[in-house]
User: Which sequence fits this backbone?
């Protein structure tokens, strides 16, 4: 479908990549985020005759998209911004590194604000970006969409609650595709992956829990963007469902991390650590704020974690092009070329996936690898 599309969370890695991709394809795109879009001019004059909108500052971007500063929880503002749109893609969220109350407010109240605004404005379709985190820590793999939501922490509980909000708007006649992506990678992604890239570049090995032989499925952001595009243009009776989105080809955690160490060219290896003692130490460091690794991630790394994507294949025609290895190596290549920090540059806070998270006490462990 061609037309006007509003993308929330457009200053984030996914939202920014999606907005630029849609604009290049000829769509009229408006990105909305609380934070200014990276690399764009802070503001451009409002078109003559356009209404004043408190809290929304227009900005044109080099990508061809337009950007506005706004809070997805502000239903009145969002109603104005989505008016006349053919579709909305709701990417805005708060990461697990945020405070629990903020996670719930941004994810749940934000989803309700966006969907209420779209419903009031008569927008026929809203693609809601959820997460496979809603499954919690499932023992059943591959995990299908039929698996119950069993959230285990503030982030997964908020994502599950936001899905319930989205499902409620389906009953009002709105087409609301819900996409549940695995962890996605690509240019712009930092977070904890920046720690792997930094250690590899410095000629160090990298630790994994146990033998590292668990299969952890990920996803290339380009493939996630393609899935969103398919959800935008598929017939409503096919699109109005819930879909896992993930790579079709993936190896073990040891294999994927070793690919980065090999690309660094220092001959270093992935190092297995005793799972029990290491898990206890990391949980303690996380609770004292000395490590950015949160509990759900720790436990997810102890068992196979992958989902089935047959529904997205059958109903959306989605077929991922890149493997885990492809996605992580492309991200590493981008990091080496464009985002490798200068020595002594302080890490950012980890408030977004574009930030390299502070390693805390983990940075001291580098001497052992």
Assistant:
């Amino acid at each position: 479908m061609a037309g006007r599309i509003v993308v929330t969370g457009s200053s984030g890695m996914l939202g920014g990549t999606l907005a630029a991709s849609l604009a290049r394809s000829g769509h009229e795109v408006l990105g909305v985020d609380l934070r200014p879009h990276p690399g764009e001019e802070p503001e451009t004059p409002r078109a003559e005759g356009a209404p004043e909108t408190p809290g929304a500052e227009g900005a044109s971007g080099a990508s061809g998209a337009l950007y506005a500063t706004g809070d997805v929880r502000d239903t009145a503002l969002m109603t104005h911004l989505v008016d006349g749109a053919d579709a909305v893609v709701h990417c805005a969220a708060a990461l697990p590194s945020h405070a629990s109350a903020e996670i719930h407010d941004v994810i749940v109240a934000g989803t309700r604000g966006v969907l209420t605004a779209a419903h009031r404005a008569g927008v026929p379709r809203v693609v809601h970006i959820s997460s496979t985190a809603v499954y919690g820590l499932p023992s059943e793999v591959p995990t299908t969409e039929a698996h119950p939501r069993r959230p285990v922490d503030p982030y997964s509980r908020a994502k599950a609650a936001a899905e319930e909000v989205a499902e409620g708007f389906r009953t009002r006649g709105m087409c609301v595709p819900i996409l549940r992506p695995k962890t996605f990678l690509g240019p712009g992604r930092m977070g904890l992956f920046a720690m792997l890239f930094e250690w590899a570049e410095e000629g160090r090995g990298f630790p994994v829990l146990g033998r590292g032989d668990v299969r952890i499925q990920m996803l290339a952001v380009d493939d996630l963007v393609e899935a969103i595009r398919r959800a935008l243009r598929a017939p409503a009776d096919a699109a109005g469902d819930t879909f896992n989105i993930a790579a079709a080809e993936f190896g073990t955690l040891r294999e994927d991390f070793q690919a980065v160490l090999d690309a660094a060219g220092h001959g270093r290896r992935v190092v297995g650590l005793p799972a029990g003692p290491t898990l206890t130490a990391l949980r303690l460091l996380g609770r004292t704020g000395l490590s950015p690794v949160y509990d759900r991630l720790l436990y997810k790394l102890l068992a196979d974690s992958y989902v089935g994507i047959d529904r997205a294949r059958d109903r959306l025609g989605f077929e991922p092009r890149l493997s885990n290895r492809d996605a992580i190596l492309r991200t590493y290549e981008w990091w080496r070329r464009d985002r490798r920090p200068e020595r002594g540059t302080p890490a950012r806070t980890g408030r977004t996936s574009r930030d390299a998270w502070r390693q805390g006490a983990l940075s001291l462990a580098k001497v052992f690898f």
Observations:
- The radius of gyration is 20 Å.
- The chain has two domains: 4-176, 193-216+249-305+323-368.
- DSSP finds twelve helices and twelve strands in the chain.
- Residues 41-57, 342-350 have pLDDT under 50 and may be disordered.
